Amino acid sequence: MAVLRLLSGSVEIAAAIIMLKLNQVDKALAVNSGLALVGPTILVLTTAIGLTGMAEQLSWGKLGWIGCGVAFLLIGILKK
After folding, report:
1. Which band of pLDDT confidence, cut at 50, 70 and 90, is reported for residue 35?
2. Alpha-carbon span 77 to 59, nearest angstrom
3. Contact 70, 47 (CB under 8 A)
4. In terms of CB atoms within 10 Å, which of 25, 47, 52, 76 comes out highest?
5. What is the mean pLDDT of residues 1-17?
6. What is the DSSP string of 28-64?
7. What's the count of helices (H) and strands (E) in the chain, helices before strands?
8. CA gap 39, 55 in Å, rounded
9. Dihedral (C-alpha) 5, 29, 70, 6: value to the nearest 10 degrees?
10. Rounded to a whole number, what is the distance in angstroms from the first to the last CA of the chain?
11. Against a cut of 0.90, is the pTM above it?
12. Which of 52, 69, 66, 65 is nearest to 1 (CA)?
C-alpha cells in the first residue's frame, strides 16, 4: 500500500513539474485531467489490498459497509 502511495505522490509531483514547464493554462488543465484517473485508481487499489489483508478479521457486514463507503467516495469524486 505504501509503495502505491509513493507512486501516486511521484506522479502528482511529476505532473506539477510538467505543468510548470508547459506554462499554459489549457495544457496544464489537460495534465490535471489525466490526474483525475490516477487518484481514484490508487484509492481503489490500496483499499483492495488493505481489505484483502484484513478480510479474515472482518465480518461480511463490515466489509459491505466499507464497500458502500468506497462506492460513495468514488461517486463523489467522479460525478460531475
Report:
1. confident
2. 27
3. yes
4. 47
5. 91
6. HHHHHHHHHHHHHHHHHHHHHHHHHHHTTTS-HHHHH
7. 3, 0
8. 24
9. 0
10. 28
11. no
12. 52
